[in-house]
Design goal:
By secondary structure, the chain is of the alpha+beta class. It is built from nine helices and 22 strands.
Length: 399
């Protein structure tokens, strides 16, 4: 669900009637994420294996050497060693978070509905959510288009796409890359060569469309914006877009004010009467599972197992809902039976796999703490709402 509350747009995604994702982003032309610039190396710090690159006046970004893959230099260059003053193409891969600068990479990504062209690797990758037999078909189909300058990642949406739809997009992405390289040679430093879609439109593009039933908006401007995008990029999905005309506000219909407030609370109650405590620190996120008001009548270990299973499913949802990332530590209730611990980990991993953002379940530490990591891309919800988010009287769109 996406709602315009000037100067913000609220996005909410529902799966089977349950709210799974929620963002509240400023409606501004200042978005950096996904943009491609001609940057200039301002400083190189060998002891942290990174460089700092200026992409516009006083906007300094962090470039890790491990992300320095097949760089495209736009200034005269001798040798392969990165030097202060070098000008090269970089793409913003992570937003600024708290005191940390935005992160850039020389691995340029051009994203479509079915595939991503990437300059950091010449290999063909396929989404893990695509069946194995279909993976080999798609890989063989795309392989002839990869060359020494770029490769491709085939996205989940390609699972149901026709060969012609996928190949047409591959050709468009190659043309987009070639055009950018062509104009880069004639543009000055700090030029913005490619502006990424705004955050709310990125959500629309990245949602797995086969599982999307409806895109609903009560804002005419957002409706026209999405209609234009879908008609050009995803005409087969146009029929899912509808304009909500009822006088009762969409934000009230889906009770999003309460949802935003609940998504910021430390304590999350479970249906059983147990609860989670979610605390975010500078270095990591800690989630504790507590029995709370739960009053099971079975054996104690059965009670703990039941609470942990319920908690695992809700934790996976809360991670998506709040956009938690980085290192996440979960303290489940201790269980004595090894088979219970294994079933819990299997259930937790299954729930985490529903997340479109890469999430890795590391395992259980010697202190019986469950460790996982989630890729950092956008700001967590609590940082998006650092300034008051006016969600009381507006319109927007829902999907």
């Amino acid at each position: 669900m996406l709602l315009r509350e000037k100067p913000r747009i609220i996005t909410a995604l529902y799966e089977n009637g349950t709210l799974m994702e929620l963002t509240c982003e400023e409606e501004t032309a200042g978005q950096l994420l996904g943009n491609i610039y001609i940057g200039r190396v301002r400083n190189i710090v060998d002891n942290i294996q990174a460089a700092f690159v200026e992409i516009s006046n006083q906007v300094i970004c962090y470039l890790a050497f491990q992300d320095l893959k097949n760089p495209i230099f736009t200034s005269a260059k001798t040798g392969n060693t990165l030097k202060v003053g070098d000008e090269l193409l970089v793409q913003v891969s992570k937003e600024a978070v708290k005191t940390k600068a935005p992160v850039v990479t020389t691995n340029l990504n051009f994203t479509g509905k079915y595939a991503v062209l990437t300059t950091g690797s010449q290999r063909i990758g396929v989404s893990a959510k695509i069946p194995e037999d279909r993976k080999s078909e798609l890989k063989a189909l795309v392989q002839p288009f990869a060359d020494g300058d770029y490769g491709f990642v085939v996205r989940t949406n390609a699972k149901a796409a026709s060969e012609e739809e996928l190949l047409q997009e591959i050709r468009q992405l190659i043309l987009q890359y070639q055009e950018l390289c062509k104009i880069a040679a004639h543009r000055p430093c700090f030029s913005l060569l490619h502006k990424a879609l705004e955050g709310h439109m990125t959500h629309l593009r990245d949602t797995y469309m086969d599982s999307l039933d409806e895109i609903l908006t009560d804002d005419p401007r957002l409706y026209e914006e999405m209609l234009s995008y879908l008609s050009c990029k995803q005409p087969e999905d146009q029929k899912k877009l509808k304009l909500y005309r009822d006088p009762f506000p969409l934000i009230k219909l889906y009770n999003l004010e309460a949802a935003l407030q609940e998504a910021l609370r430390e304590r999350v109650w479970l249906k059983s009467g147990a609860y989670l405590v979610i605390q975010q620190t500078e270095a990591l996120v800690v989630i504790d599972v507590n029995t709370g008001k739960f009053s099971g009548h079975k054996q104690m270990q059965d009670t703990f197992f039941k609470i942990n299973l319920e908690a695992a499913k809700e934790i996976a949802r809360q991670i998506r809902l709040r956009n938690l990332s980085g290192i996440i530590i979960v303290d489940f209730i201790d269980m004595e039976r090894r088979e219970d611990r294994q079933m819990l980990m299997d259930a937790f991993e299954h729930s985490l796999k529903q997340d479109p953002v890469k999430t890795s379940l590391v395992g259980i530490s010697k202190l019986n703490l469950v460790e996982l990591t989630r890729k950092k891309i956008r700001k967590p919800l609590h940082e998006q709402l650092t300034q008051a988010c006016p969600v009381c009287h507006g319109s927007g769109y829902l999907y």
